[in-house]
Design brief:
This protein has four helices and no strands. By secondary structure, the protein is mainly alpha-helical.
């Protein structure tokens, strides 16, 4: 049958708090489930993904997130970026 070749694609991350919460809570990022995604997005709002990308150490500001889990999330985020 017919086939096609993808020459380029762009990953679009969610821009709303609800979308970010769903994205993070999907299990894609190790260490973040639905409850933690809710806590993180409640704390950082629409800046959540920028914080994870640029200042992941700030995740310790979120209640229930310690340095160990913060490092795990940052590593999982980097790993997920590499897969993309």
């Amino acid at each position: 049958g017919k086939q096609f070749t993808v020459e380029n694609y762009t990953t679009v991350l969610p821009a709303t708090i609800q979308g970010i919460r769903r994205y993070l809570g999907s299990g894609l990022i190790k260490g973040i489930g639905p409850v933690m995604a809710d806590r993180i997005t409640t704390h950082f709002g629409v800046d959540t993904l920028d914080i994870i990308e640029q200042e992941p150490k700030r995740l310790v500001e979120v209640p229930g997130l310690g340095p160990k889990r913060t490092k795990m999330i940052a590593a999982a985020w980097e790993e997920q970026k590499a897969i993309k």
